[in-house]
Design goal:
Blueprint: E1 15-23, E2 32-39, E3 44-48, H1 55-63, E4 70-77, E5 90-93, H2 106-110, H3 112-116, H4 124-134, H5 150-162, E6 168-172, H6 180-195, E7 199-203, E8 216-220, E9 226-229, E10 260-267, E11 276-283, E12 288-292, H7 299-306, E13 314-319, H8 326-329, E14 333-336, H9 349-359, H10 364-377, H11 393-405, E15 411-414, H12 423-440, E16 443-448, E17 460-463, H13 467-473, H14 495-511, H15 515-532, H16 536-562, H17 566-591, H18 594-601, H19 607-636, H20 652-680
Parallel strand pairs: 3-7, 3-8, 5-6, 6-7, 12-16, 12-17, 14-15, 15-16
Antiparallel strand pairs: 1-2, 1-4, 8-9, 10-11, 10-13
Helix pairs in contact: 4-5, 5-6, 9-10, 9-11, 11-12, 14-17, 15-16, 15-17, 16-17, 18-19, 19-20
Length: about 700
């Protein structure tokens, strides 16, 4: 039986576990076994262990966020107050800050927990400013959270906890996605938390970056048992992997024809960043190149440019002898983004890995041996028939790597392949990639914010400059420029009135039965966009792209159902109706801030439902971006989901299996992450919520 305590215990530990054990519902094996741990005020404890050992489960158990399963032992939390729930007084920040930022403005984001606890709106601004000062984040309360760097977003998440004055702060893999500057900022916050008397519990598989602030070290093994260890030896590098073995391939000769040629390249890094300029290098057959740089330096943008997914502003870029285009590089180039889970769509590990091999023409009688060889190299032989959607993060990452290597690409692009991996998984990645380069002559370009971490396994390194340094050279302020604000719209209509207008337009779109009526609705929506939306031309460009994709898909489905060309006319009309029903929603979102939307919906909906609806709108652009990245990655695995592939009916199922299925899986995963982030900050603790007074 588990005992939960939330009373005052100033002289004792903040949290105490005594022989605590837990098993997920329907599972026979214990995930956590005989866990005994206590943390006092002002102490910082680190729990390390391999990927999938149960570190995140331990944090969720302490926060009270696990589903009801089998439990035994004692878990006692002393918050120093007579709190209403076991979770009060305990804060948790998970690894990815992007899925934990539930509001659009910095002030509203930090105040989210205060709203859930019905704090008076007049008290919120001062408490929010104090929390932001505690994490060293001095920005306007109206600043967009999407304009913050990764490190700043992580600090904003911590501020969202501190505003509720927790006695225990828990951080799950806090250093995984941060560059050295971001890590230093988080370490400074941990020191301030300890000085203020708060307890800190960190789960991470790499102790070196944070050992200077840790008081006690623990190790959680693969069986779920916890034991105390000492600090790691000083002076070890952060990525202390195995040294390369003998017999490695010598560096390519300068006389070889470059596989990749980059000269004086200029890349746009976004509306709020300086361009990356003056980049020049060549990559030859079988060469391995590491690209280092802090968050925001342009590493991912460079990877996407090499794949032909973004066009350079200036300079020369050729890949395999010509400017890069996805249609030409499909089957010859492979790309693995940071989160390979979004690329999974098959039901077994074998089929997931075999997909690229089949699409790239590997004979069927050779596929079994190829897949088995890759899985054996990556230590996955026992998972041949397992579902790729039920693996640990490390296992999924290795399956994703095997899936792109199976196509035997000439060029392999890896975007931060070690983020979130323990040393065992990182060694397997290095081994497999090095073998691919040496045996098959694959050219490898991989990125990392760990300067020098890949040096023993690469032929050359490229270091991208820090964006702050580039601004300093041009005498520009280091702070990120605020995106164009919504007040720049020509006119502003009351949120309630605009909601009524947009809902009416959507209903009229479904009632439209003639082309003339649809044209009239288009004119009205165009007028609303130009008058009430900030950056209307940008919104119209995005809308045009969305309309073309939607129309192509609907016409395709109608053509399959009713035949060509009979189904084309009906498909175009239905596509127009759907888009005209959807477009007013985009106008409404663009013209209003999230707090305005919540307040308006809250007039006739329960406050919790109003917030959920507004949050869905807030994460829609993120989901569309994820869908685009899924499509990009699948194209290079051999999926026929480019616009030109629509000409061949035999590839139409790829749009469903290779794009829609992974997108659906990602949607469900994103929904679960958002729900977890909201619950961790006490969303739903009261039937009604107060509202952030800002805009």
């Amino acid at each position: 039986m588990v005992a939960l305590s939330t009373g005052s215990n100033a002289s004792g530990p903040v949290v105490r576990l005594d022989r605590f054990a837990y098993a997920y519902p329907g599972m026979t094996d214990w995930v956590l076994r005989e866990i005994s741990l206590s943390i006092g005020p002002g102490q910082c404890h680190l729990v390390q262990g391999p990927t999938g050992a149960g570190k995140s489960t331990l944090l969720l158990a302490i926060r009270g966020l696990l589903p009801p399963g089998r439990q035994s032992g004692t878990l006692a939390i002393h918050t120093g107050s007579d709190a209403a729930s076991a979770g009060s007084g305990v804060g948790l920040v998970r690894q990815n800050p992007k899925t934990q930022l539930l509001c659009t403005s910095l002030g509203a984001e930090v105040a989210f927990g205060l709203e859930n606890h019905r704090v008076a709106p007049s008290e919120m601004p001062d408490r929010v400013r104090a929390a932001l000062a505690e994490v060293g984040l001095r920005r306007s309360l109206n600043h967009s959270v999407d304009a913050l760097s990764m490190g700043q977003q992580y600090r904003a998440c911590i501020a969202g906890l501190l505003v509720m004055e927790p006695v225990l702060v828990m951080l799950d893999e806090p250093m995984a996605q941060l560059d050295p500057k971001g890590r230093r900022e988080v370490l400074a916050i941990i020191r301030r938390l300890k000085r203020s008397g708060r307890a800190v519990l960190i789960c991470d598989h790499r102790p070196e970056p944070i050992q200077t602030v840790v008081d006690r070290f623990w190790h959680l093994d693969a069986s779920g048992r916890l034991g105390e260890t000492g600090p790691p030896a000083h002076g070890r590098p952060v990525m202390n992997l195995a040294a390369p073995g003998p017999g490695g391939r010598s560096a390519p000769e300068d006389s070889e024809v470059p596989v990749v040629r980059v000269h004086d390249l200029r890349l746009a890094l976004g509306p709020d960043s300086l361009d990356l300029t003056g980049l020049s290098f060549c990559a030859r057959h079988g060469e391995r190149i590491a690209v280092y740089g802090p968050n925001g330096a342009g590493k991912t943008t460079l990877i996407r440019a090499l794949a032909g997914l973004v066009a350079p502003l200036d300079g020369t870029l050729t890949v395999l002898g010509a400017p890069p285009r996805p249609s030409r590089l499909r089957g010859r180039l492979a790309i693995l983004f940071q989160d390979p889970r979004k690329q999974m769509f098959e039901t077994t590990v074998f089929d997931e890995v075999a997909f690229a091999a089949r699409r790239n023409g590997t004979p069927e009688d050779e596929i079994d041996s190829k897949v088995n060889d890759l899985l054996d190299c990556l230590g996955l032989t026992g998972l041949l028939h397992a579902s790729p959607h039920q693996l640990s993060y490390g296992q999924t990452h290795l399956v994703g790597l095997a899936a792109v290597l199976a196509g035997n690409p000439e060029i392999l692009l890896l975007d931060d392949p070690f983020a979130g991996l323990d040393k065992k998984c990182a060694r397997l990645v290095v081994s497999a990639v090095s073998r691919q380069a040496e045996v098959h002559g694959t050219t490898v370009v991989w990125t990392s914010h760990e300067a020098g971490g890949l040096d023993p396994w690469v032929d050359r390194t490229i270091t991208l400059p820090d964006p702050a340094d580039r601004r300093a050279e041009r005498d520009e302020p280091v702070s990120v420029r605020q995106p164009p604000h919504r007040s720049k719209a020509r006119y502003r209509l009351g949120t309630g009135i605009m909601l009524a207008v947009c809902v009416s337009l959507s209903m009229l779109a479904f009632a439209a039965r003639s082309g003339i009526f649809l044209v009239a609705l288009t004119a009205v929506n165009l007028l609303l966009t130009l008058v009430f939306c900030p950056q209307p031309l940008r919104l119209l460009r995005k809308g045009a792209v969305l309309f073309l994709w939607q129309t192509a898909l609907v016409v395709l489905l109608y053509g399959i159902r009713f035949g060509f060309p009979q189904g084309i006319a009906s498909g175009v009309q239905v596509a127009g109706q759907l888009f005209m029903a959807f477009w007013p929603g985009l106008i409404f979102m663009s013209a209003n801030t999230q707090p305005r939307i919540v307040r308006t919906l809250g007039r006739f909906l329960p406050s919790r439902i109003a917030f959920v609806a507004a949050t869905c709108l807030r994460f829609l652009p993120l989901l569309l971006g994820e869908m685009q990245q899924i499509r990009e990655a699948q194209v290079f695995r051999g999926a026929r989901i480019l616009t030109g592939d629509l000409k061949s009916p035999r590839y139409w199922p790829d749009w469903l299996y290779c794009l829609m299925v992974p997108t659906l899986i990602k949607t469900l995963s994103l929904s679960a992450d958002i729900a977890m982030a909201a619950t961790a900050r006490d969303f739903g603790i009261h039937p009604k919520r107060t509202a952030w007074p800002g805009d």
